Amino acid sequence: MTAPLLDVRDLTVTINRDAGMVTALDKVSFYVNPGEVLGIVGESGAGKSITGAAIIDLLVPPLKRTGGTITLAGERLDTLSPKAMRAVRGGKIGFIFQDPMTSLNPVITIGRQLCDTIEAHLKIRGDRAKKKALEWIERVGLPNPDVQFKRYPHQLSGGMRQRIVIALALCANPALVIADEPTTALDVSVQAHILQLMRDLHRESKTSMMLITHDLGVIAKMADRVAVLYAGRVAEISPVGELFHAPKHPYTRGLIRATPMPLPDGNVRLDQIPGAMPGLGKTPPGCAFNPRCFKAEGDCRATIPPLTTRESAAFSCFHPLEEEVA
Amino acid sequence: MSVQDFLTLTGVSKVYRRGQSLLERLKKTDAGGTKAVSDVSLVVRHGETVGLVGESGCGKSTLARLVSGLMTPTSGEIVFRRDKAGRTPRLQMIFQDPYSSLNGRWTIEDIIAEPIRVHKLRKGRAAIRTRVDELLVQVGLSPADAEKYPQEFSGGQRQRICIARALAGEPEFLILDEPTSALDVSVQAQILNLLRDLQKNLHLTSLFITHNLSVVRIMADRIGVMYLGELVEEAPSEELFRRPRHPYTRLLIDAAPDMDTDDRSLHPIAGELPNPAFPPSGCRFHTRCPFAKDVCRSTVPPQKMTDAGGLYRCHFDLDLSNASTVSALAKVKTA
User: Do A192 and B156 lie within an 8 Å CB cutoff?
Assistant: First the structure.
């Protein structure tokens, strides 16, 4: 097996409140192989976005990383100085944010923004940087790059803006791209375009990708492996086919069955999970999912289940689902 | 109008006018403006749930506001069935965002009791309180929650409170504007199941607006598909999914990624949504349609009826029951 590109071990993020420390991310461990798309899925508040932000040290106080190691291609990121970290952001790691309006500077042309990123990270200037920026505008599928180069973000539609954000994330040839809900703010017809573009660029550049989303449909089409987060902990990490056909963690199966999806016979299945995810600092003892789980027993309420690896899958559950019930 | 027609919309349009300059006002020129809803005709029968789907900017929320009476249509008619005394049916609305649609300074009891007081449905504090408790239990909360404030609840619970408030007005007609879009999937499933049970038990007539085709498929008896302010197709739910008549419906169904990990192909719709202020001539979908011919660019398509009681606006009678034929065509068009 090749060494993973990104290795995250026991990543812990806490919120410092007056009343004391609240754990937002509890010993999250996962890895991303070179050229792989790792999907990170979960409901709001599960810690998906915090995971992405923690890797590039963009946590906003009172959120603070308090433990764990992050290694990118053999280099420790968690011990880097803020200045060295700036070179990593946008350079080795590109970031695609959810809202394309707020992640672009509204008073600078998109061409200038692309050039700035290229000049900062690729050490090329002037006309060569501009040429590269124009290339990228064309590569992400915008017509007339020369015209687009001089335009401001508000002159573009939502889908076009997200294309520019993707160009910004990829223009410095990063080793890893973190995409945080890249299509959530877009309509379905535009979403499919953006996903297709991300897939094409991913195939061309062989960049690794962390795709954070709450949409299992997007995960099914895009990811190679999937990490399911629940209440700040990893519930399960499995290859995508296995995750949908034979989920190990009861939460994973609950999430899949709660998503309204038409069955081949034309009916639509809709099974709910009772209750709701515990809020921050209200995680029950033992497994965080135990109050909503139909398989919960005494041990689930007493001890936090460790992440166990079985063949290609890893899960944190004392009573994993067997193949036949899936 | 037949007896069972609960609500009839005839040629309803709504134009949002833009601000005019002084000169334009003096010249009395027509400002034009954006036609958010354009010539929509729709019938809702008693006890039926009609779904409306479409992408953002297609006018579905504007149509909801027109039906609820929060706005008046620029042209066209919205007629509710009247009872013997000449009253129109009681109507309630459930909104998308349960965080902004509840007053944070009111207790849950105040919130749910307001429609009861306004419509004078119960007399006396005790009777109102009993009704509030009853409604809370009906939507899956407990009577003890009545003393609390909205901030103490999660998104899903807040949406339950919104539903209880809507039911408190004892509506005959319910308008649901994206009621689950702000919720997580596991909670969305709970709310959809709750709404489905309530529809069955209370025999509500409702208009269900969403951008999510899977959701509307579960909830609605009939579905209308909107594109740039126009109702491009309307059909019974199963018919719409089994045999869509309008290319946009077919492409919209295919565009949403499903959970099949064996077939990982994506089906984008060519092009982008045109600016609703300047809709394309002829058929409004012709700029993105894989079947578009010259006639589509010049002539507005006629409204056609189907045997199953649906209607669609397209020049051609296309067989779109098979997904693969369209996506193959669409790929040629994008490439």
Answer: no
* B187 and B273 inside one domain: no
Q: Residue B49: which domain range? A: 1-89+174-220
Any idea what the Cα angle at residue B321 is, between residues B320 and B327, rounded to 5°?
55
Length of chain B: 335
Residues B138 and B182 in one domain: no
Same domain, residue pair B124 and B253: no
Number of domains in chain B: 3
Q: Are residues B94 and B163 in contact, defined by beta-carbon separation less than 8 angstroms? A: yes
Tell me which chain B residues have a C-beta less than 8 angstroms from the C-beta of A187: 55-56, 211, 273
Specify whether B331 is located in the same domain as B256.
yes
Evaluate whether the domain defined by A1-39+58-72+81-219 bears CATH number 1.25.10.10: no
Cβ distance of A196 and B190 shorter than 8 Å: no
B179, B84: one domain = yes
- Count of CB atoms within 10 A of residue A116's CB? 16
The predicted complex's ipTM stands at 0.81
Residue B326 confidence (pLDDT): 59
Chain B interface test: which of A43, A163, A189 (most B C-beta within 10 Å): A189
Name the residue of chain A whose CA is nearest to B239's CA: A266
Torsion of CA B31, B32, B37, B41, to 10 degrees: 110
3-state secondary structure at position A212: strand
pLDDT tens digit sequence for A48-104? 888 999 998 888 888 888 888 999 988 898 888 989 888 888 889 999 988 777 889
pLDDT digits 0-9 by tens, B206-247: 999 998 888 898 889 999 999 998 999 999 998 998 889 999
CB spacing of A256 vs B256 below 8 angstroms: no
Beta-carbon contacts of residue B320 (< 8 Å; ≥ 6 apart): B243, B244, B245, B246, B247, B249, B250, B326
- Looking at the fold, whether B284 and B184 belong to one and the same domain comes out as no
Same domain, B13 and B83: yes
Report yes or no: A62 at the B interface, CB cutoff 8 Å. Answer: no
Q: Is A229 helix (H, G, I), strand (E, B) or coil?
A: strand
Percentage of residues in chain A having pLDDT higher than 90: 39
Q: Do A215 and B257 touch (CB under 8 A)?
A: yes
- Report pTM: 0.85
pLDDT at residue A325, as a whole number: 46
Q: Quick one: closest CA in A to B156, which residue?
A: A276
Tell me, what's the pLDDT at B327? 54
Q: Which of B184, B197, B251, B333 to mutate to test the interface with A (most CBs of A within 10 A)?
A: B184
Domain match, B13 and B40 both? yes
Q: Are strands A37-41 and A225-230 parallel, antiparallel or unpaired?
A: parallel
